[in-house]
Design brief:
The complex is a heterodimer. Chain A is of the alpha+beta class. Chain A contains 16 helices and 22 strands. The longest helix of chain B is centred in the C-terminal third of the chain and has 34 residues. Classes of the chains: A alpha+beta, B mainly alpha.
């Protein structure tokens, strides 16, 4: 799968960095908050008294925070809950069911990776519906209470503003959670049932085939056409082999009268646990390089030239013999780029070599391969765009760093003490290229349970929902319903496009900022040409500078919603790394905390104003 | 009364009033209970008139309709966003998502023809080549075809989609680099044939082996596209009718061509060409609308030229003294310079003279109007009629000629005719066999077959020069180059004396940079002169049939004594010809020779050339490998070790896949080790 900008950093490496960044940001935000609070109250009470008012507001907040009663929060929560039910949120669920019912119309049954399509569909639609629900439900509640003055029945009771805000967030998040869980359950069965199928029969013929160097007669053929695909079948003395197609295979049994019965589809829904390595390249002259671009628009993969010393090297870390049973299973996706057609019905040959990792000092050139222990090269033909599998055996023929050939042991001779190992990939054919990215070669440590991974995928949506709800409740403490909704949607959109906004501020986006684009659109200018110098340009540029700076500033406070979306992992059959989940959880917790606090202060000021 | 209530009632009434004209505009048509039919509202009638209602356009799909409704009138925006996303998916190689997005776009705008054509092209042509494995490519070509077929469901009267299907089946499967593989896959792709069965007459698309052929399938689609144009009179948007209608016939021609390329000749090929000829004739007889407002028939060209001549003569007969008299009169009015240059060849003139000459030539040109003016006044009316007929006939004639050139009509017509002749079929067969022999390094046999082919092709080109100027000729040029390399290897001169293909070679001098262009021209002239001399020395009857029977004899002779000839050349010249069949025990001379030259190349560090030579030797050796005695094996193994070194130096794996001597190595591994040890001792 493509891992473009999602570098997975171990949780405990991320935590200190993330935490310190958070604390710094918080300090700044608190300072700004107190300052604004002071400004507002000094307008009302004069600068001298404002000081004490501000101080007392902060100290009350802290005092009230310590006095939060779970019982009262729960009461507020049930209130929010009941309100949600009263406002017929279940309609969203009905909508979801309708979507599922008709999904078959829009999902392509001939797709080569149907599992991916099905999973993407359920995850994306759930995500969309739940986010919408969170926005609509949470933004109108408080403003309506204020408008209908029902809020007085609450604030007159000994309920603190903390509890009101928290109660709402928990209540709405609760109903969202219930809905999300039900949708998840339905989605799971939808996907599993949708992909489930079997093949009724197979037509086989006797053919001669080579099995372990001997020519024997085996039966070969294809299964019946079901779900718009077939599998190749081979029956020999060793048993029956059903080839994989459309990402799955089937178990099969041959009965006494020779008929074959096929089982349910297997392997459609996976959760591979990959161990990624670090990729570096050696160029055609044998020096450190960065791989070649073959001119494709998408620069994700870099290429190595065949028939030269150009090599792609992955360094894996933390390998332990106890993690593997028979050898280390490696999976790889290798793209092929041909500069000439060559033999059309033959793939491009290359080799993989397992090599000892040797740490060099900074600035030193890497040790050439013949000065390291290594296994014999394994020659193979690249499959291009499909997964090649290979197992690194625990012992195999190899050559030592001194050049002696002997049988070598993987963990004794090749893997370093800290568990490092390298895999070297070379393309053997001149003027042909192999293209790889870091995530293209990985060690398949084990397989996690698909259902657990599915739940993790939904957890990502859940985190998003919680944050959106918190934003919505926060905005609704001081804005009227529809404005709060707009603000929440704005916060979501900005969060999704945070990178774009940042690029816009750094002037890395063609066509400039908002007003410049507008001018260009009206004048029908293209995006590449510089604007002509003049008053318009100066005005537009400076206006955009200010607006994009403000936008970028806001963006840096907003969550990266895209980062919560782990649908790609689930859809491509990769286990979502626990570090990611932990990270998202901590981030969510931080946002809920901050937004509740902000909400508290706003509600408090309204209370005071009232 | 309450004011608000009054206002509300007024609003309601106004709304209701608006419904009346709305109904008038958009009421649907229906069948009245008592019989008869309501025409429906204005919009319905207009839709009916222009064939725009969904039911007229194609199938009504609930998924598509509900998607259109669900976008709440923002269909365009949605399609735009999806289009952007499709581009993104394509860029990031997410092919499944791309296909799914295209489905959504197509469902949103099922009657937007460019979506279907553009994106089907994308899938079949742009996405398919992203895959390295040709099976995957074929799979994606099919996806594009599926997408187009889906499009025809929604737009059954759209000739362009049907035409595109013809094009994809024909050209994508039949004219790409992977043609051989694609055609073979399509032949046996039964699941695909089943999905096609309800769209075309799949039995009509079956080849001589009873398997559907891509070109015959293409022919079916092209014919369907034509019948949609003919029956519904829908205009062919974005295609010239001349080209549009030519492709059905072309598909049959390509079919005949393709099976011959695959080594199928004789009656099967002849029948294929016959069918193609009939279809091409049908195209020639079809009235083709022109941009001048009238229709023409390509096949009527000769008749039209005839007619022009007759009309010219009729008009000239009315003029006293004929056309020449008027010309002379005009000549008399030219000034001196003009008179000097009036008969000059424009192409050879400098710019000043050119202007004068072209002016002079246009001045003396006799137009029908001139002739009418020269006719006796009492016959002038008749002359006017004749002149206008002539002008019209000439216009037709020129248009036909011009249109013929666009589709190369005469070339294909001639080709269909000639390809059915024995000499063409034999010529093709010999060429095919020669190429095969060349591939199998049966050098002498290849040369003989080529020689047979050349005499036939030369005779065809002499009788039909038009055939020497197109694709087939280019294939022949490639074959001549191969022949050249063969002669080189045998140390014989090229071109040999009296080489029949000299004329063709002189047409493609850039393909033979080693040879002087003028010299080629001269040799061709000399050769043709000698042929003519031969012909005139023989009597008429013999000269007519001489060539055919002569070559036939030669062919018979070579077939009878082919093996012996080959053997004798080998033993006498001691050259590299393959000598696989009768070698026993020791190594054949040819192999030794190959190995020796490979060794030399290796020593000169010309590794690639050495590798090729070694591999040639292995190939020659393969059939007799099992019969080699131990001494011979030793020699072979020593060379295998050298070969391995070459490969190592080239960074290529040893043994390579399909190594011809793999069995030999496996059977005598210990001997290889011995040889290696001996070498290292040395």
């Amino acid at each position: 799968m493509v891992l473009e900008d999602k570098e997975i950093i171990p949780f405990f490496e991320w935590l200190p960095v993330g935490l310190s960044l958070f604390l710094v940001t918080m300090l700044i935000v608190i300072a700004i908050g107190i300052f604004i609070g002071y400004l507002v109250s000094s307008m009302r009470y004069g600068p001298g008294k404002a000081l004490s008012v501000t101080f007392s507001a902060v100290s009350t907040a802290i005092k009230e925070l310590s006095q939060i009663s779970p019982r009262r929060v729960w009461a507020m929560t049930t209130l929010a809950f009941r309100e949600a039910i009263r406002r017929k949120v279940l309609v969203v669920f009905a909508l979801f069911l309708v979507l599922l019912l008709f999904a078959g119309w829009f999902l392509d049954p001939t797709a080569d990776h149907p599992g991916k399509l099905y999973l993407s569909f359920v995850l994306t639609s759930t995500n969309f519906l739940i986010t919408m629900l969170a926005v609509f439900l949470s933004t109108f509640s408080l403003p309506n209470d204020v408008k209908n003055r029902t809020i007085y029945t609450v604030v007159t009771k000994p309920v603190r503003a903390w509890e009101i805000v928290l109660g709402r967030i928990i209540g709405f998040a609760g109903i969202g959670t219930l809905l999300l869980a039900t949708m998840g359950l339905f989605s799971y069965f939808f996907v599993v049932r949708g992909l489930d199928h079997s093949h009724s029969s197979a037509e086989l013929q006797d053919v001669e085939a080579e099995v372990r160097g001997e020519i024997v007669t085996v039966k070969e053929g294809e299964t019946s056409l079901d779900n718009r695909h077939r599998h190749e079948v081979q029956v020999s003395q060793d048993g029956i082999v059903v080839s994989a197609n459309h990402d799955h295979s089937h178990g099969a049994v041959v009965s006494d009268d020779g008929t074959i019965s096929f089982g349910e589809s297997e392997g459609n829904l996976q959760a591979r646990v990959p161990k990624y390595g670090r990729l570096r390249y050696i160029d055609r002259n044998g020096e450190e390089g960065r791989g070649v671009s073959v001119g494709s628009e998408w620069g994700y993969r870099r290429y190595i030239e065949g028939g030269t010393p150009a090599t792609a090297i992955w360094t894996f870390e933390g390998l332990k013999p106890t993690d593997f049973t028979d050898g280390i299973p490696v999976e790889m996706v290798i793209r092929v780029f041909r500069t000439y057609k060559g033999v059309i019905d033959q793939g491009i040959r290359g080799s993989i070599q397992v090599v000892q990792a040797v740490d060099q000092e900074e600035g030193q050139p890497p040790l050439p391969v013949d000065q390291r222990n290594r296994y014999k090269k394994i020659n193979f033909v690249a499959q291009d765009q499909s997964v090649d599998r290979l197992t690194i055996p625990f012992k195999a023929e190899g050559t030592t760093s001194t050049g002696t050939n002997r049988e070598m042991l993987l963990f004794e001779d090749l893997v370093s003490e800290d568990g490092k190992l390298e895999i070297w990939l070379q393309c053997a054919e001149r003027q042909q290229y192999y293209g790889v990215a870091q995530a293209d070669v990985y060690i398949r440590q084990a397989d996690a349970m698909f259902s657990a991974n599915f739940v993790k995928g939904f957890l990502g949506i859940w985190f998003q929902m919680i944050i959106v709800t918190s934003f919505a409740v926060m905005f609704s403490t001081f804005l009227n319903g529809s404005v709060a909704m707009l603000a929440t949607v704005g916060a979501i959109v900005l969060g999704y496009f945070a990178n774009f906004v940042r690029d816009m501020f750094n002037q890395q986006v063609e066509g400039g900022g908002p007003s410049e684009s507008l001018v260009r659109m009206i004048r029908q200018q293209n995006m590449i040409l510089e604007m002509e110098p003049g008053v318009t340009r100066t005005f537009v540029k400076s206006f955009d500078f200010v607006t994009t700076m403000v936008m970028a500033g806001i963006c840096s406070l907003l969550p990266d919603y895209g980062g919560f979306n782990n649908a790609d992992f689930v859809a491509n059959g990769f286990d979502i790394h626990n570090a990611l989940i932990m990270r998202d959880f901590i981030v969510t917790l931080a946002y809920v905390g901050v937004l509740t606090t902000v909400g508290y202060f706003f509600l408090k000021t309204r209370e005071i104003a009232a | 009364m309450n004011k608000t209530l009054v206002r509300k009632v007024i609003y309601l009434l106004l709304m209701a009033a608006c419904l009346v004209p709305l109904y008038g505009i958009s009421a649907p048509s229906f069948v009245r209970p008592g019989g008869g039919r309501s025409e429906g509202g204005l919009l319905t009638q207009l839709r009916e008139e222009h064939g725009l209602s969904q039911a007229n356009l194609g199938e009504i799909d609930p998924a598509s309709e509900s998607m259109k409704l669900a976008t709440l009138g923002m269909r365009g925006i949605a399609a735009n966003l999806l289009w952007e996303r499709a581009n993104e998916y394509k860029k990031k190689e997410q092919w499944d998502n791309l296909r799914a997005t295209l489905n959504q776009i197509a469902k949103l705008q099922p009657n937007f023809i460019s979506v279907w054509t553009h994106q089907a092209w994308n899938l079949s042509y742009n996405v398919s080549v992203e895959f390295d494995n040709y099976e995957h490519r074929y799979h994606w070509v099919k996806k594009g075809i599926d997408f187009l077929m889906e499009g025809t469901r929604y737009n059954r009267n759209e000739p362009r989609l049907l035409w595109d299907l013809g094009w994809f089946f024909g050209h994508k499967l039949g004219r790409s680099d992977e043609t051989k593989q694609f055609r073979r896959k399509y032949n046996t792709d039964e699941d695909f044939h089943n999905t096609l069965a309800d769209k075309i007459d799949i039995n009509e698309a079956k080849n001589y082996r009873g398997q559907p052929d891509n070109w015959l399938t293409a022919h079916q689609w092209f014919s369907q596209a034509q019948s949609v144009v003919d029956l519904s009179e829908s205009p062919i948007k974005g295609k010239n009718p001349l080209v549009f209608h030519s492709d059905a016939g072309k598909a049959l021609i390509r079919y005949a061509d393709a099976i011959e390329e695959e080594g199928v000749f004789d009656e099967v090929a002849r029948i294929a060409w016959q069918k193609a000829q009939l279809r091409w004739k049908k195209y020639g007889d079809r009235p083709i609308p022109t941009s001048y407002g009238y229709t023409i028939q390509l096949d009527a060209g000769e008749r039209q030229s005839e007619k022009v001549k007759e009309l010219e003569k009729a008009l000239a007969d009315m003029v006293p003294g004929g056309e020449e008299a008027i010309r002379q009169k005009k000549m008399a009015q030219l000034d001196e310079d003009e008179r000097r240059l009036v008969d000059a060849n424009l192409a050879q003139l400098e710019i000043d003279d050119y202007t004068i000459a072209s002016r002079a030539q246009s001045k003396v040109k006799v137009t029908p109007q001139d002739m009418v003016a020269a006719v006796d006044p009492k016959d002038r009316n008749a002359a006017k009629v004749a002149a206008s007929k002539l002008v019209e006939a000439r216009a037709f004639d020129t248009t036909i000629k011009r249109y013929r050139e666009v589709v190369n009509y005469i070339y294909w017509k001639t080709r269909c005719e000639v390809e059915q002749q024995d000499r063409a079929i034999d010529g093709r067969r010999y060429l095919y066999e020669a190429n095969e022999a060349f591939e199998n390094i049966a050098l002498v046999e290849a040369i003989e077959k080529y020689d047979e082919a050349w005499t036939r092709w030369a005779s065809i080109h002499r009788d039909y020069p038009v055939l020497a100027e197109d694709v087939t000729a280019e294939d022949l040029v490639d074959a001549i180059k191969r022949y050249n390399s063969l002669l080189d290897q045998l140390g014989q001169p090229f071109p040999p004396e009296n080489f029949p293909m000299l004329r063709l070679m002189s047409r493609y001098p850039e393909e033979f940079p080693d040879l002087d262009e003028a010299m080629l021209e001269k040799m061709a002239d000399e050769y043709e002169a000698s042929l003519e001399a031969q012909a005139s020395s023989a009597n008429d009857e013999e000269s007519a049939s001489g060539l055919d029977s002569g070559t036939q004899e030669a062919a018979d002779n070579s077939e009878a004594s082919g093996g012996a000839d080959a053997a004798s050349v080998e033993t006498t010249s001691g050259n590299q010809a393959a000598a696989a069949d009768d070698t026993q025990g020791p190594l054949a001379e040819s192999v030794v020779e190959l190995l020796r030259s490979a060794d030399e190349l290796f020593q000169d560090v010309d590794l690639l050339a050495a590798k090729v030579k070694y591999e040639e030797a292995w190939k020659t050796l393969k059939p007799v490998a099992s019969t080699l005695d131990q001494d011979a094996r030793k020699v072979v193994f020593e060379h295998v070790i050298a070969y391995r070194t070459v490969l190592q130096n080239l960074d290529q794996p040893f043994p390579p896949t399909d190594f011809p001597l793999a069995d030999l190595l496996e059977g005598h591994a210990e001997e290889l080790d011995d040889a290696e040890a001996a070498l290292s001792d040395f």
